[in-house]
Structures are given as structure tokens and as C-alpha cells.
Design a protein that fits this description.
Keywords: Signal. It contains one helix and eight strands, in the order αββββββββ. It has 128 residues and is an alpha+beta fold. The chain has one domain: Crystallins (Gamma-B Crystallin, domain 1, Sandwich). The strands form two sheets. It has a four-stranded antiparallel beta sheet with strand order 2-1-4-7, with no helix packed on it. Strands 3-8-5-6 form a four-stranded antiparallel beta sheet, with no helix packed on it. About 4% of the residues have low confidence.
Length: 128
Amino acid sequence: MQFTTAIALLIAAVGINAAPAGMSKRLDAIPLSFYSGAGCNTGTAVTTAYIPTDGSCFPTSPIFSGNTDSALISQTNLQTMPAGCTLVAYSDNTCSSVNKIVYDATGRCGTFGPNKPIFSAKAAGTCQ
């Protein structure tokens, strides 16, 4: 009797504390790694900026200066992009330029070309 009571209490405790199957962790920021040069193949990233998922424009120029012509969302930092989420990089500080790089998957290098840095980025879609 005591054994079955202990088992029942254990099962109840596990059931109460288990997370629902459809629940996923909220993503507050998307890590965008910047590289010197146009190919994302210079080895180590110059820096990684964490772009908020709330859709606000994130200017990268106060973080670093120099030749940061390419960027990618490294699979080491984020395995996959959330469904319906994209990150858009811009060639100006206000996220309003017509020159855009759209990241809808991790591991893809984006560049505007040599000596054309990425100056800002923002998340779009359902990233949160």
C-alpha cells in the first residue's frame, strides 16, 4: 500500500511539473556574427551582435568599427531560425536603406560586397 501511494505521488509530481509539449523557449535576440571581408571565411568572427527580436532597429556601428563586410547567423550560436522569423541587415544606421540582406536560415553568409559594411539590422516576422 505504501509503495503504490509513493508511486502515485511521484507520478503526480512529475505530471504537475512537466512542461506542455507545444511550449517553446522565447527567443529574445538573434546572434549575428560579423566578419572582416566579404566571405565569412576569415576564421573567427570580429564580434557577435545580439539583434533584439522585437523588430526595433539595432545599429551596429557603436559596437565596432572597421571592415565588417559580411555576417552570418552561426549555427553554433543558434541552431535554427524560428519558423516565420527573418533577420534583415542594412547598409545604413537606421534600417531604412534599399540595400538589404535577408537571413531566413542559419549558416548563410550575407554581404553587400567589398568595403560595403553592414551598419544595422532588425528582426521581422514571428521571432518571439
